[in-house]
Design goal:
Structural class: alpha+beta
Largest sheet: 3 strands, antiparallel
Number of helices: 2
Number of strands: 18
Shape: elongated
């Protein structure tokens, strides 16, 4: 009896975790550059005592992130850019250099180039600062230029965005939604990374697929609860039979 309870109880608990993952993906279906989270179940034997490993927990574990490219959304802004193919924008985070596909850039009051969410953009030689009374633009190779509004014919090269392209296996997603290299080291600029300017990359979440997964997960949870109820009914029936025979 306890075998059924173990499997059903842990299965229901871990199914709730999967539902949280799916809900988070759906909540970010319109988040610029978002990468959907993946998850999978695995069986973990319960050890620590004598006898055979006849009990097992069902455990939900993160299986990484879906790194496929999202759709290109045209905006017409000169400071919007989307990476074409593989690659990442380097940004400054509280824990050091991190990476994002969010190319929705703005210039703050001090002239520093940042993401729309406030993260400082890394250039190949450090943060990029746009001169006062200038209009910034980004080239497909990541070069950032500033055009003097008083003299539009005069353009100054500010620097180049730090565009990196580590192997997918080296990347992991943090709780803040940013990616970092597993070894903790900063990536090296890759001159082969190219941008599509005048638009942003949307989330790669497939809303329909996630909704179907959410429904299937809910049904799986209901099944686990039904198994627990069946175990309780079997226990009561067995106790009733024992009391009659006693």
């Amino acid at each position: 009896m306890d075998r059924l309870i173990y499997v059903a109880m842990t299965g229901a608990k871990q199914t709730e975790y999967r539902q949280s993952t799916v809900a988070n993906n759906l909540a970010n279906a319109n988040t610029t550059g978002f990468r959907a989270d993946l998850a999978a179940f695995r069986a973990v034997p319960v050890l620590g005592g004598p006898g055979l490993a006849t009990r097992a927990f069902a455990v939900e574990q993160g299986a990484g992130s879906d790194l496929s490219q999202g759709s290109f959304q045209q905006t017409g802004r000169e400071l919007d850019a989307a990476i074409t193919g593989d690659g990442w924008f380097a940004v400054q985070s509280a824990s050091g250099e991190a990476y994002t596909r969010n190319g929705n850039f703005v210039v703050d009051a001090s002239g520093m180039l940042k993401t729309f969410t406030g993260l400082i953009i890394e250039g190949e030689s450090g943060p990029l600062t746009i001169p006062e009374n200038s209009q910034a633009s980004i080239a497909p190779d990541g070069t950032v230029s500033a055009i003097d509004l008083a003299n539009p014919a005069q353009a100054v090269e500010v620097g180049r965005l730090k565009l990196v392209n580590p192997a997918a296996a080296e990347m992991e997603k943090g709780l803040d939604g940013l990616f970092r290299r597993r070894n903790g080291e900063a990536g090296q600029p890759d001159p082969n990374v190219r941008l599509s300017v005048g638009g942003i990359e949307g989330s790669n979440v497939n809303a329909v697929d996630q909704l179907v997964t959410m429904i299937a997960t809910q049904r799986h949870y209901d099944m686990q609860i039904k198994l627990l109820q069946t175990a309780e009914q079997n226990s009561r029936s067995a106790a009733s039979i024992l009391s009659l025979n006693g």
